[in-house]
Specification:
Blueprint (H helix, E strand, L loop, with lengths): L7 E4 L5 H13 L4 E5 L9 H6 L9 H8 L2 H10 L5 H13 L8 H6 L5 H10 L4 E6 L2 H4 L9 E4 L13 H11 L4 E3 L6 H9 L4 E2 L3 H10 L3 H19 L8 H7 L1
Parallel strand pairs: 1-2, 2-3, 3-4, 4-5, 5-6
Bound molecules: flavin mononucleotide.
């Protein structure tokens, strides 16, 4: 009831069949209607800035982190009241995973069984197991996109994970036209959208929907709970004013205008 009919669940594809089936069942029971499977994290990447910043899961209270916490009393109080951030979804699998892959490096256990590099046959498995809309996220090349419609996928999400997974990845916006040409499925786009003009560019290049990741976090970090609504207003303003500059009256005008200018 809490999710209404708007609940999208983003899943990293579990390697282990029992975990996959259990996860899908839990997702269904929780009332999610749309399943998004992220395919662009075949393994953990080295994220130097995160390592340097001491970001680990679960969070560890080192002297440095404690010093930072002391500088953010409101955050510290709220966190003390609500508890440390936890990954409840995967916590359940932690023990089983540890026991079944005892030969792997200790810091890799959960990640190893919870993620894999899915191919098209994996997408078919998910299609058979999930009766609601299925979206594949992290598609960056036409060859990957082309078979998805035939497999019963409902939309393709062009994304390079905000560039944080593979530093050598091309920009998602550069791959969008080729993916568009390879499929008739609706296209969702993200990675690098910073304002209304970027949204306009993505829509003009063939995206049907545009998403943003970091921007919402920045908005929250800057002004708290009011941030996302404020960002939304800024985006609408920016999108409108840029559409006026090019005489676009509807979002559906954008692809044609691209060819006109
Ligand atoms: C801190 C952080 C965590 C993320 N975690 C996930 C994740 O768990 N699953 C996923 O599919 N994408 C994840 N992403 C990628 C976002 O879903 C999204 O594709 C990306 O942030 C869009 O690019 P943008 O930040 O430039 O808008 C994460 C991104 C950030 C910045």
């Amino acid at each position: 009831p809490y999710l209404g009919d708007m609940g999208w669940f983003q899943m990293y594809p579990p390697r282990d069949e029992a975990i996959r089936n259990d996860m899908i069942q839990r997702v269904k029971n929780a009332g999610f209607t749309t399943l998004v499977v992220t395919i662009d994290v075949p393994a953990q990447s080295r994220r130097e800035r995160q390592i340097r910043g001491g970001l680990v899961q679960p969070p560890r209270l080192t002297p440095r982190i404690l010093a930072q916490v002391a500088g953010c009393p409101e955050w510290a109080l709220r966190t003390a009241l609500n508890g440390k951030p936890r990954m409840k979804m995967i916590e359940t699998y932690g023990k089983a995973v540890m026991e079944s892959v005892a030969s792997l490096p200790s810091n890799n256990h959960v990640g190893y069984l919870l993620r894999t590099a899915p191919d098209h046959s994996y997408v078919k498995l998910l299609r058979d197991a999930w009766d609601g809309p299925l979206i594949v996220k992290g598609v960056m090349c036409p060859d990957d996109a082309a078979p998805l419609e035939g497999l019963g996928v409902d939309a393709v999400w062009v994304s390079n994970h905000a560039g944080r997974q593979f530093a050598g990845s091309p920009a998602a916006i550069d791959m969008l036209p080729a993916v568009k040409a390879a499929t008739n499925l609706p296209l969702i786009f993200d990675s690098g959208i910073e304002g209304g003009l970027d949204m306009l560019r993505a829509l003009a290049l063939g995206a049907d929907f545009v998403m943003m990741g970091r921007a919402w976090h920045y908005a929250l970090g800057a002004i708290g709970a009011k941030g996302p609504a404020h960002l939304y207003d800024m985006l609408v303003d920016d999108l409108n004013s840029n559409m006026i500059q090019i005489a676009a009256t509807h979002l559906s005008d954008l692809p044609d205008l691209l060819h006109k200018y």
